[in-house]
Amino acid sequence: MSASKNDYKRITTNSLVEMKQNGEKIAMLTAYDYTMAKIVDKAGIDIILVGDSASNVMAGHETTLPITLDQMIYHASSVVRAIKRSLVVVDLPFGSYQGNSKSALESAIRIMKEAGAHSVKLEGGSEIRESISRILTAGIPVMGHLGLTPQSIYKFGTYTVRAKEKQEAEKLKEDAKLLEQLGCFALVLEKVPAKLAKEVAESISIPVIGIGAGNGVDGQVLVMHDMLGMTQEFSPRFLRRYADLHTEMSSAFKNYISDVKNRDFPNENEQY
Ligand code: KIV
Fold first, then answer.
1. Residue 12 maps to a domain
2. What is the extent of the structural domain holding 54?
3. Whose CA is nearest to atom 5 of ligand 1?
4. 97: nearest Cα among 84, 81, 109, 85
5. What angle do CA 78, 47, 60 make, to 5 degrees?
6. Is residue 272 one of the residues assigned to a domain?
7. In total, how many domains does the chain have?
8. CA nearest 190: which of 142, 156, 241, 166?
9. Is residue 266 part of a domain?
10. Which CATH number fits the domain that encloses residue 76?
């Protein structure tokens, strides 16, 4: 039996609000390339996030800051070519929207036009309200992102849980309301206490998708490479690994190397 109450042929921003209203949890994963996106779309994921975590898992950077708008467009266009059902959200990378709302809109338009994305995600609250508003006026759906916003890692200094103190929690609650009022269609809450995340999700009408934010929110997101067990060094408490592809892949690579070295591959049936 499908876990979905509605058999959506195509997920739209409206379907997500409907899911929240119906109490159906929203499943979101990242993807950065055609092949993986095709598999996860076919599996029935609701939202594919072309995250700027591509900077980490695809390019090997320590933070998400170095990835460029051109690189995000490359990843996003590969994903868009693969999907039939999921809603594709693309991160606006660091530096492409914080400066002023005009450049924010130009960045969002490039993502929509050149990659064929369905929506964009921006990190931050009141500080970037003008950028969010301007993008929305162009008819581009915006997903917000509060809590641990990795593009601000040098301000935070650490990847630890955010909004544990009252002042930061109050600001987060105000920002969530603001994003709803501005017209964002959903919101990611990253690494905040579960109680706070639940309170936020219950206080606004748009879906709240959590990562390290407990089970009281409207949906969950994970980085694909982490949940597949491809990355080994990253092991936060919130991460559930659904496969151990690092071991599987290492063993496949070792077997291949050994078969080549031992002249076992290719055999007679594997040649022309
Ligand atoms: O870039 C990303 O993968 C993200 C998720 C962690 C939410 O923003």
1. yes
2. 5-241
3. 51
4. 109
5. 50
6. no
7. 1
8. 156
9. no
10. 3.20.20.60
- Which of 142, 189, 221 to probe ligand 1 with, by most ligand atoms within 8 A of CB? 221
> Tell me: the pLDDT tens digits for 33-82?
999 999 999 999 999 999 999 999 999 999 999 999 999 999 999 999 99
Beta-bridge mates of residue 186: 143
Find tokens 């690994």 and name the residue.
241
Q: Does 93 contact ligand 1 (Cβ within 6 A)? A: no
Catalytic annotation present for 106: no
Catalytic residue among 180, 190, 202, 233: 190
Residue 258 within any structural domain of the chain: no
The whole-number average pLDDT for the span 17-32 is: 98
- The C-alpha atoms of residue 139 and residue 164 are separated, in whole angstroms, by 35
Q: Is the pTM of this model over 0.85?
A: yes
Any atom of ligand 1 within 6 Å of the Cβ of 52: yes
Select from 128, 130, 199, 132 the least CA-distant residue to 163: 199
Which pLDDT belongs to residue 1? 42
Q: Which two tokens stand for residue 171?
A: 């600001």
91 lines ligand 1 (CB under 6 A): yes
CB-ligand 1 contact for 223 (6 Å cutoff): yes
* C-alpha neighbours within 13 Å on the C-beta side of residue 198: 6
At 189-220, the pLDDT tens digits run 999 999 999 999 999 999 999 999 999 999 99
For the CA of 53, the closest atom of ligand 1 is 1
